[in-house]
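Researcher: Next sequence.
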Amino acid sequence: MHYLQTQLEFPFLCEVDLYSYCEALADGDIVKVIGVEDNIDLYGMLMKIKKGRKTLYSPLAELSVIDTKSKNHLIIDAYMEWEANY
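Model: Next structure:
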């Protein structure tokens, strides 16, 4: 969690891939990630996001960074690979 908090550049845009954690999100929604909230065993890394004026929370695994050439995309991609093999 500390690594992601210190290495990611906030805010950044993501597209919602899944929507099982938060009923206010739908597949394909564009959200702004504003921080790392917590690590929850059932969901993994929980991100603090904004959808319009609402502040919500979503697992990192349900988000895809829109700018595939950004530093954030590389960090999150590596993190997800690590978590999948952990």
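Model: The chain has one domain: 2-85. The chain has two helices and five strands.
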